[in-house]
Amino acid sequence: MKAIVVRPGVTDSIHMRDMPDPRMGDDQVAVRMLRVGLCGTDAEINHGRYGQPPTGEEFLILGHENLGVVLDVGRNVKTFTPGEIVVSTVRRPCGQCPNCDAGENDCCSSGNYEERGIMRRHGFMAEYYVEHPQYLTRLPAAVEPFAVLLEPMSVVEKGIDHAFLLQRRLVWNAKLALVLGAGPVGLLGAAALRARGLRTVVVGREPAGDLRARIATQLGAEYVSVENGSVLDLPREIGRPDLVLEATGSARVVFDAMQILGPNGVLCLLSVTGGTGTNEEPIDRINRQLVLGNQAVFGSVNANSRHFAKGVEDFVRIEEMAPGAMSRLLTNAIPWQDFKTWFTRRGSGIKSTLEIG
Ligand code: BGC
Q1: Tens of pLDDT along 33-45?
Q2: CATH number of the domain that 129 lies in?
Q3: Atom 11, ligand 1: which residue's CA is nearest?
Q4: What is the mean pLDDT of the chain?
Q5: Residue of 65, 301, 305 to mutate, ligand 1, most atoms within 8 A of C-beta
């Protein structure tokens, strides 16, 4: 089959090549790929800065944001039937740690997990893949047009889930949620927070008339542009948030976010920053505020099947609440043989996809 591969560790090695057809076992499902979403992690891997091939192999099939249709099922599989629209989770358990043993492989503690399209396991930029049914989530027809967003949505769902779990340490009536960054993750975060009925403010660099701002508003969120200002000025305008989702991709913003958090507030960090930047920060003020305010700051990566299921539930609710809003995130549909256009110049737009089938 045709697949888009990289040689991890080598800069700009991305190319299309023939790879062996995957063989479906009796306990597996064969899936034909429809499209993949492109994200910063794919670009990082193609820069040679991240990712690993499967053990003993040279190439890694790239792609982790996936959408496919069931083609065939093994004779022991009773839970899926051909024709169903499915999305696969990304991470596979290490088989060595208690979190992976408990199905919480998104919180693997050995670091020996595998991630499809990222770490030691082939991804989804291919015509087909095979998978065990417990890693697949079925999607209803109503959300199919934007279902390729489920993987990044699951990442957001996990962050929010963990924020609420952490806040069980006290009596917490969250009223104001702030989302820093109006990219796909930020806007999906805003959608998930609105589905929970929270007042949500999205903060972006883009001016107020930008498509990102219009989508935020359609979701029932407010939009504040920091085009000419700083995150540190936000409390004067909107108050101090109970919950902050950081999704700008910039580590600098993290320290500003700590300074605007409300009493008992929680800050969830979602950006995987690849650089080696350093900066001077007002550490005494930041520490004092965190301590005196009983505040919590935590990082969150990946997601497990529960978060994929919650993402589907929220997608259905959001589509009822703001019809068409999610589809507006999909700004650039690229035929998959033209993959180089995105990897050489990502351009503007919100979410680009490679159309496979
Ligand atoms: C993916 C996650 C993955 C993380 C780190 C992100 O782009 O969405 O599933 O865990 O990269 O590899």
Answers
A1: 999 999 999 999 9
A2: 3.90.180.10
A3: 41
A4: 97
A5: 301
Q: What are the tens digits of pLDDT across the range 304-346?
A: 999 999 999 999 999 999 999 999 999 999 999 999 999 999 8
Is 65 in the same domain as 115? yes
Predicted confidence at residue 306, as pLDDT, reads: 97
Say if residue 222 is in the same domain as residue 95.
no
Calculate how far, in angstroms, residue 121's C-alpha sits from the geometric centre of ligand 1: 13
| Exposed / middle / buried, residue 347 (Cβ in 10 Å: 0-12, 13-18, 19+) | exposed
- C-alpha 27/C-alpha 84 separation (Å) is 17
Cα–Cα distance, 128 to 23 (Å, whole number) = 10
Tokens coding 134? 């417990």
Question: Ligand 1, atom 7: nearest CA belongs to which residue?
Answer: 41
Candidate of 64, 114, 153, 154 to mutate for ligand 1, largest count of ligand atoms within 8 Å of Cβ: 64
The whole-number pLDDT of residue 275 equals 84
Please report the pLDDT score of residue 174 as a whole number.
97
- One domain for residues 34 and 126: yes
Those residues of the chain that have pLDDT short of 70 are: none
Q: Are 124 and 353 in contact (CB under 8 A)?
A: no
By most ligand atoms within 8 Å of CB, the mutation choice from 50, 90, 114, 150 for ligand 1 is 90
* Ligand 1 atom at shortest distance from the alpha carbon of 152: 8
**CATH number (domain holding residue 205):** 3.40.50.720
Question: Distance between CA atoms of 158 and 309, rounded to whole angstroms?
Answer: 11
Domain hosting residue 13, numbered range = 2-138+327-355
